[in-house]
Amino acid sequence: METLVIPFRLSAEQRNRQLSGFNTRKEIEWFGFEGAFAEPGQAVVRFKTLDEGVLGGGGTDAINGGVISAGFDAAFVLAGLAQYDVDVVVTLELSVQFLSLAKVSSGLAFHAEVVRSAKNFCFVKGALLGEKDGSRLSFALASGMVAPTGAERKPS
């Protein structure tokens, strides 16, 4: 069953402001992540830098499972930030399915989409995609729920 992606609720200008704040967050920098938006409604988080500390999944040179979970968390929050004009979006639920060891490859990125949105929360889904032997592959899938928190921004 295919789900429809909910388009971004915020304007391009608002999303750029959200993205700027997201990419300077300490935890995003610490994991070496970098976020971006892709139309019509996808948040993408890539590894900007890859520290040796993120490796070790399954006793190999694959990405650690905890780091994969953190990548989905980041991508889901970024997807939520494109829906709500607030400073903070929190993860209420996160479920990850590990499909294959995710070794560092070109194009390795977390892709997240809002699949249902309401005033106080939204449901998200995502995939960790990369290349293996010249083919595009899903290394992990995730689903979750995020919610805006804090005072809404005032128009500038």
Detailed description of the structure:
With 156 residues, this protein is an alpha+beta fold. The protein has one domain: Hotdog Thioesterase (Thiol Ester Dehydrase, Chain A, Roll). Helix content is 22%, strand content 44%. It has three helices and eight strands; from the N terminus they run ααββββαββββ. It has helices at residues 12-23, 26-31, 65-81; strands at 33-38, 42-47, 55-57, 62-63, 86-98, 109-117, 122-132, 135-152. The strands form two sheets. A six-stranded antiparallel sheet has the order 1-2-6-7-8-5. A hairpin with a 3-residue loop joins β1 and β2. The termini are far apart.
CATH superfamily: Hotdog Thioesterase
In terms of DSSP E residues, the strand content is: 35-45%
Poorly predicted sequence stretches spanning 5 or more consecutive residues: none
How many distinct domains?
Answer: 1
Please compute the radius of gyration using only Cα atoms. Answer: 15 Å
The top-level CATH class is Alpha Beta
Topology diagram in text:
Layout: H1 12-23, H2 26-31, E1 33-38, E2 42-47, E3 55-57, E4 62-63, H3 65-81, E5 86-98, E6 109-117, E7 122-132, E8 135-152
Antiparallel strand pairs: 1-2, 2-6, 3-4, 5-8, 6-7, 7-8
